[in-house]
């Protein structure tokens, strides 16, 4: 028999969870001590090492690509990107080379949900990632590559994976393929899932049940909620009581299609050896001008992981980043300014990113007229104009000390006009929420800011 197309109660249930700032299992004020206790219960250590100390990893003789002897996990290769703007590829021209991570397998990022005392709670994990600046952060219930959950590493099984694969799963709240960092991954996607359990769920060590209200408070703390949690949480629906926007949905989709059509982007994988502009020495692969990022190697000890010790490459940016939405209200309706970003690893030319998404150090040498649009507006914003601000690290399993300051910043008409420059558009959070139900519309930084909107009670 036909069934309802949606759950009419879901929005109200999520709103109740968001309004509940104390859970039934762990008080918000006790979270820091719980996280510290989980850190004390396990041994964690990360050490930078030269490439010749990598175990199981080597540079291929023919290509110079950095690969694992199993043929699994990922490879570090070269990428050559050329881009032309304009309807016929006849506009401004860009050309660059860079290292890139090639990891074709699709992982699972999943959060399990269960009601306690009538309030939805989310099962979160204290997980160590070698690239996190503080190592231990709050991750989804399941955060696993296919190599992990199929035991390619010969390690222990992934806890709670049965709720996200195979028969007998609970009720699906969200399930969508989303991109990883297009600047550092080549066409990498993960399956973002939220599943509501229908029966009893055992609570294992390193896991805790939290309400959305509790998670929202933790999102306001630096380097606490990891990237994988943020991207999954962004898939929760955002209520839209007004149903109004500067760009109606059809016009917004047409604008996105137009942006994808006007960029002619060619991204070709090339050998890592001899990559123009990049040099390799014992400890790193880095850009000749010291900008952008470098490839390094680490040795890891982690007592609570499926494998307790290993070595691996990581990408490490040269400095902290900034990711920000400029925000305005039009007719009383909140809007954020999105940017149609080209990144070499994207599957479909562009995805919508924040207004500003840059590492400022990479542009400090440029004259003002050549600096990225809106960057100086964000960097110069006073505290009275910042509605939200926190430091968040990126994916700690592949990136080391990759930390950005995420911001929501009030803007004026003079700074960010209602009719924005080409490549930018004003959209509502509800419109972003509608787009994120489908894959490859919002990049991972925009999804983080969408999740953070829920942690910003003064503006949403």
TrEMBL record:
This is NDP-hexose 23-dehydratase. DTDP-4-dehydro-6-deoxy-alpha-D-glucose 2 binds at residues 183, 278, 341, 357-359, 362-363. Pfam families: Hexose_dehydrat. GO terms for molecular function: lyase activity. Gene3D superfamilies: EvaA sugar 2,3-dehydratase subunit (3.90.79.40). Residues 29-236, 250-453 form the dTDP-4-dehydro-6-deoxy-alpha-D-glucopyranose 2,3-dehydratase domain. It comes from the Bacteria. DTDP-4-dehydro-6-deoxy-alpha-D-glucose 1 binds at residues 57, 145-149, 228, 395-398.
């Amino acid at each position: 028999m036909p069934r309802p197309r949606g759950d009419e109660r879901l929005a109200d249930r999520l709103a109740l969870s968001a309004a509940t700032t104390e859970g039934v299992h762990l008080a918000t004020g006790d979270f820091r001590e719980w996280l510290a206790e989980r850190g004390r219960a396990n041994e964690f250590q990360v050490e930078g090492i030269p490439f010749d100390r990598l175990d199981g990893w080597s540079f291929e003789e023919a290509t110079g690509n950095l690969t694992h002897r199993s043929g699994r996990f990922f490879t570090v290769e070269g990428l050559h990107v050329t881009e032309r703007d304009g309807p016929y590829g006849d506009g401004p021209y860009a050309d660059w080379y860079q290292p890139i991570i090639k990891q074709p397998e699709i992982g699972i990022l999943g959060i399990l949900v269960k009601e306690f005392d009538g309030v939805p709670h989310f099962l979160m994990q204290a997980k160590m990632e070698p690239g996190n600046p503080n190592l231990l952060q709050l991750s989804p219930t399941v955060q696993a590559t296919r190599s992990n959950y199929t035991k390619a590493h010969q390690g222990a099984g992934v806890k709670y994976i049965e709720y996200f694969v195979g028969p007998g799963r609970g009720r699906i709240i969200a399930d969508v393929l989303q991109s990883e960092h297009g600047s550092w991954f080549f066409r990498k996607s993960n399956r973002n899932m939220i599943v509501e359990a229908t029966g009893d769920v055992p609570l294992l060590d390193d896991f805790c049940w939290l309400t959305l209200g509790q998670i929202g408070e933790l999102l306001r703390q630096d380097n606490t909620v990891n990237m994988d949690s943020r991207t999954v949480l962004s898939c929760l629906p955002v209520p839209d009581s007004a149903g109004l926007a500067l760009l109606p949905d059809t016009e917004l989709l047409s604008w996105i299609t137009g942006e994808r059509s006007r960029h002619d982007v060619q991204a070709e994988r090339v050998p890592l050896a001899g990559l123009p502009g990049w040099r390799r020495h014992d400890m790193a692969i880095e850009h000749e001008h010291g900008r952008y990022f470098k490839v390094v190697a680490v040795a890891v000890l982690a007592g609570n992981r499926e494998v307790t010790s290993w070595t691996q490459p990581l990408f490490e940016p040269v400095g902290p980043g900034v990711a920000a939405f400029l925000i305005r209200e039009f007719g009383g309706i909140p809007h954020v300014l999105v940017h149609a970003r080209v990144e070499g690893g994207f599957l479909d030319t562009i995805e919508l990113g924040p207004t500003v998404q840059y590492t400022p150090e990479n542009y400090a040498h440029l004259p003002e007229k050549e600096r990225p649009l809106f960057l100086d507006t964000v960097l110069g914003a006073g505290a009275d104009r910042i509605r939200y601000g926190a430091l968040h690290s990126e994916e700690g399993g592949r990136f080391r000390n990759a930390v950005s300051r995420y911001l929501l910043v009030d803007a004026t008409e003079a700074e960010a006009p209602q009719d924005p420059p080409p490549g930018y558009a004003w959209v509502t959070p509800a419109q972003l929420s509608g787009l994120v139900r489908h894959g490859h519309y919002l990049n991972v930084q925009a999804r983080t800011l969408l999740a953070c909107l829920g942690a910003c009670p003064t503006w949403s």
